[in-house]
Amino acid sequence: MRARPGIALALLALAVMPGAARAAGDPNVAALQIALWGAGTYRSTIDGVRGPATAAAVRRFQQHHGLAADGVAGIATRRALGPRGGPRLGSRTIRPGMRGWDVGALQFRLAWRGFPNGRFDGGYGSHTEVAVRRFQAWAGLGADGIAGPATVAALRQPIRRSPIRLIAPIRAPIGDRFGPRGNGFHPGIDFPASSGTPVSAAGHGSVVFAGWDSGGYGNLVVIAHPLGVRSMYAHLSRIRVRLGQQVVAGTRVVDVGSTGLATGPHLHFELRLRDAAIDPLSALR
Fold first, then answer.
1. CA distance 102 to 89
2. CA 67/CA 39 separation, integer angstroms
3. In the chain, which residues have pLDDT < 70?
């Protein structure tokens, strides 16, 4: 006997029930990791989490500079890092062209608040400026691309979560999650699956984009949901909906593929809240 649609969707949600959304690390630890990456002693994920890899990288840096190798980034170690070792975020207004500890912390905070800016490198280049402007516009600030006290204060607000609940769009395990990846940031979650695997709408809404994205997503579908939430389905092999179509949770909308900047077949699933990327796991039930 075939299961009723409501029961089938409930079973699907239970089959791929994810864990809790990830917590952001400490921006100052991330700034240290970025500085050590620039110095060549750290090559693990820039995640803002104090751990053995960070301590070992500090010790290698200290040994190389003739310091006591205690794994603690104190004043002497910060001085030896040169421009990468300071100043703290909030101690100066940050403008394009600047470099430093505070720029790295700024990049890390921007990413976790939905505005990744390429690599974490502690340099205020064009990507960081664009991210700052986008965040400022999102936060209702003057979008001048200059990170002054108001911008820094807004970046210290709690990380936003989804205001609506959604179902998992695919019956597959979760691969990469939302958060730091290497020296960059992954703005969604990946579901590795075979090409052609069916993907469903995560909730009811309207298709506002269905086509090719030249920015790396490949074949892409975007669905607008209530309260300013949009779900994005990327790297698709086939699009099964059209622009303006109304869908409900569980409607088959696309098939898994590996188009765009993808190394293999998987569904990249992303959520945006008024253009800011948020952790999809904060919405999935």
1. 4
2. 15
3. 1-21
User: Nearest-CA neighbor of 108 among 20, 203, 8, 32?
Assistant: 32
Contact assessment for residue 54 and residue 78, using Cβ atoms and an 8 Å cutoff: no
Distance between CA atoms of 63 and 81, rounded to whole angstroms?
Answer: 13
pLDDT for residue 23: 79
- Using a 10 angstrom Cβ sphere, with 0-12 exposed, 13-18 middle and 19 or more buried, the burial of residue 107 is buried
The pLDDT value recorded for residue 17 is 41
DSSP state of 106: H
The third-level CATH classification (topology) of the domain covering 162-282 is: Glucose Permease (Domain IIA) (2.70.70)
Rg (CA), the chain: 21
pLDDT at res. 3: 34
pLDDT of residue 20: 62
pTM confidence score: 0.90
Tell me: cis bond preceding 87? Omega within 30 of 0 counts: yes
The boundaries of every CATH 1.10.101.10 domain in the chain are 27-155
Question: Which class for 140: exposed (0-12), middle (13-18), buried (19 or more C-beta within 10 A)?
Answer: exposed
Rounded CA separation 199/24 (Å): 29
Length of the chain in terms of residues written: 285
Start-end ranges of CATH 2.70.70.10 in the chain?
A: 162-282
Rounded to the nearest 10°, the torsion over CA 103, 47, 136, 233 is 140
Per CATH, which fold does 27-155 belong to?
Muramoyl-pentapeptide Carboxypeptidase; domain 1 (1.10.101)
